[in-house]
Fold this sequence. Notes:
With 143 residues, this protein is α+β, with helices and mostly antiparallel strands. It is 24% helix and 17% strand. The chain has helices at residues 14-32, 38-42, 82-91, and strands at 71-73, 97-101, 115-120, 127-129, 134-140. The longest helix is centred in the N-terminal third of the chain and has 19 residues, at 14-32. It is elongated. The termini are far apart.
Amino acid sequence: MTLRNGTGAFRDRPVMRTALAAASLLFLTAACTPTATSSSNASTPPAAPTPQASQPAQAPPTTAAAPEVKTCTVPNVVGMIHQTAQDTMQKAGLFFLTEEDASGQGRLLVNDRNWKTTAQNVSPGTVVDCDTKILLTAQKIDG
């Protein structure tokens, strides 16, 4: 039986194609299947399991540095238009700002440009953690 024709290509026979496919599959299966070799492991004895209870618990490191706290200096914003006061606080790195109506009526400061800042709960010049909550009190501007 001749496997090649005059052009060098395999003849188109179903038996030959099946045999080649089976041989390829067998080769790939053998190449991908892990084999256990007892001779390579024979020279190295298996490691004895270490009991967990006999090992002392490791203490956490005592020299762990605490994360550095970023500090900001509180500016003086009393007397400023409330929007400008907020912008000034944010430029100083202070973003946790709350606000309230100085009249005690509980009105919301919807348009910050119509309010004047009358007080702040942290004194100007104080160095604080930048995540400190700062309360700004404002009075509505008549007009």
